[in-house]
Amino acid sequence: MKSYMVAVAAMALAIGGAQAQSNYPERPVTMIVPFAAGGPTDVVARIVGEHMSRTLGQQIVIENVAGAGGTTGITRGAQANADGYTIMMGHMGTHGAAPALYPNLKYDPTKDFAPVGLAAGTPILVVSKNAIPAKTLKEFMDYAKANASKLNEAHAGVGSVSHTTCTLFNEQLGIKPNRVAYRGTGPALNDLVAGQVDYACDQIVNLVPQIKAGTIKAFAIATAQRNPALPDVPTTIEAGMPDYQVSAWNAIFAPKGTPEAIVTKLNDALSKALDDENTRKRLLELGADIPDAKGRTPRALQQLVDSEVGRWTPVLKAAGVTAN
Ligand code: MLT
């Protein structure tokens, strides 16, 4: 092909690309949730996704792709076309703990994504089935130490938030319970309510309705302050386990190479959702922490991922936990 024809073709491609970006989105956007429907990641994705759809003018369609502590779905998202039509809801597990637990992880959380923005901070609670004979965290700690080999702890797979945060809990207690993996803490919570499993460490946005309904016990929240959505649940500091301080977060990512103009549109839609009164109300009622404007930028999310991978890797390696 003559060089001027190459130049014309390249120009046409560039114009076409710019056109596609400025018209984005022209069709529904898939948001991969790497856990089963009904769990905390799914709940946050659907709440923010609903308002983002309005801003974008196209439906954000949630696709639950569970497995391997969320890494199956995130791997699929990382390998999707970087055209803005596949995004994903990741979190402290998939983009913080996973590298320490999956030696053959098919993505690097710090390099293989275009961070869009932080959606919600999600404090962690220690909860149990109602039949556990403990009324306080101290009593549960004593019970767990005395009965560890008989206890079943529910989580959403190695590398999930529930698995990672209960690894820390179990380590601090010096216990080794039976660890039961689910495709998300939505299904895990059903079994906790039914008394099929004994305890879990889970994100507040999954637990508030059940705790308020009295169908599970909440011993403590692992943050320095109590949470307005659950004012009667003591902090781990008040309840006698001050070293157990852990919180999670959920954030939206696009595949690496997604055009900046598209990331900006997605980030703008997320930010408008987090400023929307009804969306805020729904998240706050579930105990979520809503990031401020500074905390919502793509750069802030990149810094969070970098720090979280750095934080969790030594903790999990010291605990000797791996996925294999
Ligand atoms: C987890 O990491 O435990 C997940 O958030 C569980 C879920 O979203 O189902």
Index terms:
D-Maltodextrin-Binding Protein, domain 2, binds D-malate, 2 domains, two-stranded parallel ribbon, alpha/beta, 12 helices, 324 residues
Note down, in words, how this protein is organized.
This protein has 324 residues and is an alpha/beta fold. The chain has two domains: 27-121 and 250-318, Bordetella uptake gene, domain 1 (D-Maltodextrin-Binding Protein, domain 2); 124-239, Periplasmic binding protein-like II (D-Maltodextrin-Binding Protein, domain 2). Helices cover 46% and strands 18% of the residues. The protein has twelve helices and nine strands. It has helices spanning 3-23, 40-56, 71-78, 93-101, 137-147, 161-173, 185-193, 204-213, 236-239, 260-275, 277-285, 298-318; strands at residues 29-33, 60-64, 86-91, 113-128, 152-155, 178-181, 199-203, 217-221, 247-255. The strands form two sheets. Strands 1, 2, 3, 4, 7, 8 and 9 form a seven-stranded mixed sheet that branches. It has a two-stranded parallel ribbon with strand order 5-6. α6 links the parallel β5 and β6. The termini are far apart. The model has no long low-confidence stretch (mean pLDDT 95). It binds D-malate. D-malate is lined by residues 35-36, 39-41, 70, 91, 93, 156, 160-162, 184-186, 203.
